[in-house]
Amino acid sequence: MSNQGPTSATKKLVRKLMLAAVGMFGFGFALVPLYDVICDITGLNGKTSGQYTVAEADTMAVSDREITVQFMAQNSEGMVWEFHPNDMQVKVHPGEVKVVSYRAKNPNDFAMIGQAIPSVAPNEAAQYLKKLECFCFAEQKLEPGEEIDMAIRFFIDENIPEKITKLTLSYSLFDLTDYSEPAQEITAR
Amino acid sequence: MSAAHDDHHHGPAKGLSRWLFTTNHKDIGTLYLWFSFAMFLLGGTFAMVIRAELFQPGLQLVDPNFFNQMTTMHGLVMVFGAVMPAFVGLANWLIPMMIGAPDMALPRMNNWSFWILPFAFAMLSSTLLMDAGAPNFGWTFYAPLSTTYAPETVTFFIFAVHLMGASSIMGSINIIATVLNMRAPGMTMMKMPLFVWTWLITAYLLLAVMPVLAGVVTMMLFDVHFGTSFFNAAGGGDPVLFQHVFWFFGHPEVYIMILPAFGIISAIIPTFARKRLFGYDSMVYASASIAFLSFIVWAHHMFTVGMPIAGELFFMYATMLIAVPTGVKVFNWTATMFRGSMSFETPMLFAIAFVVLFTMGGFTGLMLAITPADFQYHDTYFVVAHFHYVLVPGAVFSIMAAAYYWLPKWTGHMYDERLGKLHFWMSFIGVNVLFFPQHFLGLAGMPRRIPDYALQFADFNWISSIGGFMFGASQLILLVVVIKCIKGGKKATAQVWEGAQGLEWTLESPAPYHTFTTPPDPKLIHAQ
Q1: Does the annotation count B281 as an active-site position?
Q2: Which of A15, A18, A25, A189 to mutate to test the interface with B (most CBs of B within 10 A)?
Q3: How many C-beta neighbours within 10 Å does residue B513 have?
């Protein structure tokens, strides 16, 4: 037996099986965009979608309901900026565009780059929070000692379920100064 | 019987090169089994360090970081070094003999898939001697613990996992090709012994998930060294994504470690009950159902990450569904024993202990599957007790049962039955004293992976550690039994066990170096 190679049927089967293994390796990587897409559609994990552009036809009916939006800020490990919302909470009617801001200050004597990552609780509210403008869409570069106000322009989709009367928008601030190549495009915001 | 024996081939080569260059499925099976036993003792040593530290509250023997390295290395070595290679070793030894094939389909690849394993584990273990220390992020290596906060040795870990994965993928391709293309005439799919069936299904599981594991460690490699952000929230990644990808591999992986065990038990119980296996067809379909379900339950490992209620319900019900095919199997084993003419040699003792204790582990699994209850049990010792009950008196006992059952066929000698029984009872008592109290610890709220604990957990930990030392020490008996059996003992007959069925028992003992170079008589196949 040891002198004969595998039969042609075996060779064919092995080729197929190896292809399957390579395919599954690819599938592992395909899970990454797949996960982002699923999170984007369903708003799982409290991920908010990217920038929302208002279509011409959108007539935003302002409803009577009142929803409390609370703001939180936290620094990830090692981030030294002062970072906090200027308003702790606002009341909004679904459909009404609201502008709020966060304040950040770089206390160091060198320029730093920060990136805020949002999260919404409860998770299911995330997809109804539409951001027209947000400082989290881009990296923030602050010169030594610089202090800025960073705006968020948003509205709450009128389709938000009745049971949600309060939601929390939280930002974690990360230090990207040491990243040689800043992440150019960050899709899920 | 001797019809299968073949004289015109040379026997094994002499010396070390026999083992280095061998393409013989029996030699490679032996290598796998010895390697697995060595890893079992190494991983067991790590477990002894853990149990010694937990013997009493407070930090006495090791510092917390080293404790974390021990839990991590224990898990990795036992899963990838002990249990998986033991099953591959058994597959190598037994599948060609069970289906009447002369060897595995791809003997050279077989040699390669074994010989990369020692290198993989040398690489992984060498991290213990490095300044940065061994991986300390748990065998599940959740990001960012294994990326942002990992010790520098994480790269050794990543490449070791790549090598193990390559070995498993090659091994499973070989097994699939052997089972599908090398069966003797008359050996139809539904006549194959269940060990062959369960291994065929396992091989497909391995082929599907080991590449995903390779993918997830590759993503880690990129995050650690090349500035990508698969799992780094700062760059737009998501640590929860890691858990999804990991458990997409991880859950089928736990069935990879138990399906071949089902096959072994399905061979041993009929032999010592002297009855045909009850419900052969349903066993095959149950194994296939378990394999399919294993792909759609992974998120039950992560109920507490914050899933929508619909997701939690889906994964809860899907998980509980697995109890149905598993219940079919337990029922069939019990029905096989029912009114059988049973005798209780060591393999049968291990097999019965498997059925009882594995079922207990299955029931705690059902408790963990209940989402609201899982929030209480998550990351406690209850989880540790659960998976050790299915893996130690489950997978490991089945491997020991297999070793005792087929040792006479491998060595040509009967093992020492008195020592075997001593080994069984020491292991049986030890394993229960070791793991049963951990249920209580977990329900009382003791978290897993901690080197120190609150005082109220002291007594059960003390008992558990005593059981641990007892279980650990009794494994040395197995080593003695195996060495004694290789050196000599009562000559084994070809049949070995009165009630044994299957082609491997038509070969003389010890099995000749080359077997079934001409296919066996199809009538022999029909007989089983």
Answers
A1: no
A2: A25
A3: 14
Model confidence over B119-163: pLDDT tens digits? 999 999 999 999 999 999 999 999 999 998 999 999 999 999 999
User: Which tops the pLDDT comparison, B50 or B310?
Assistant: B50
Which residues in chain B have Cβ-Cβ distances shorter than 8 Å to A10?
105-106, 177, 181-182
Question: Which residues 6+ apart lie within 8 Å of A12 measured at CB?
Answer: none
Q: What is the CATH number of the domain that holds B286?
A: 1.20.210.10
* Residue of chain B whose alpha carbon sits nearest to that of A39: B241
Q: Which of B277, B373, B299, B360 is nearest to B326 (CA)?
A: B360
Query: Cβ of B23 under 8 Å from any chain A Cβ?
Result: yes
pLDDT of residue B347: 97
Number of domain units in chain B: 1
pTM: 0.90
Tokens 């075996």 belong to residue: A10
Q: What is the pLDDT confidence band of residue B9, given thresholds at 50, 70 and 90? A: low
**B306 vs A7: CB contact, 8 Å cut-off?**
no
Assess whether B146 carries a catalytic annotation: no
Residue B381 corresponds to which tokens in the numbers above?
């010792």
- Active site (annotated) includes residue B139: yes
Answer whether B47's CB lies under 8 Å from B468's CB.
Answer: yes
- Of the candidate ranges A29-43, B286-300, B429-443, B500-514, the one whose mean pLDDT is the lowest: A29-43
Out of 2.60.370.10, 3.40.190.10, 2.60.120.200, 3.40.50.720, the CATH code matching A47-175 is 2.60.370.10
> How much is the ipTM here?
0.88
The dihedral over CA atoms of B187, B189, B192, B198, expressed in degrees to the nearest 10, equals: 150
Are the beta carbons of B250 and B140 closer than 8 angstroms? Answer: yes
For residues B90 and B22, the answer to whether their CB atoms sit within 8 Å is no
Residues in chain A with CB shorter than 8 Å from the CB of B107 are 1-2
CB A143 within 8 A of CB A111: yes
Please state, in angstroms and rounded to a whole number, the distance separating the CA atoms of residues A74 and A24.
38
Strands (E), chain A: 67-75, 82-85, 89-92, 98-105, 112-121, 129-134, 140-142, 147-156, 166-175
What is the helix (H) or strand (E) element at residue B90, kind and residue range? Answer: helix B84-99
Q: A32, B514: Cβ pair inside 8 Å?
A: no
Question: Residue A45: its pLDDT value, please?
Answer: 66
Which of A9, A32, A76 lies at the smallest CB-CB distance from B241?
Answer: A32
| Nearest CB to B208 within list A18, A24, A32 | A24
Told to judge if B5 belongs to the known catalytic residues of this protein, a careful annotator would answer: no
Please list the pLDDT of chain A residue by residue as tens digits (189 residues). 445 677 888 999 999 999 999 999 999 999 999 988 887 776 666 677 677 776 655 556 677 888 999 999 999 888 889 999 998 999 999 888 889 999 999 998 888 888 888 888 888 888 888 888 888 888 888 899 889 999 899 888 888 888 889 999 999 898 888 764 444 444 444
The residue among B108, B41, B51, B110 whose CA lies nearest residue B81 is B41
Range of the domain at B415: 2-527
* CA dihedral over B500, B502, B505, B506, signed as positive or negative: positive
DSSP string, A62-106: PPS--EEEEEEEEEPTT---EEEES-SEEEE-TT--EEEEEEEE-
Chain mean position to CA B116? 19
Q: By the CB < 8 Å criterion, does B450 face chain A?
A: no
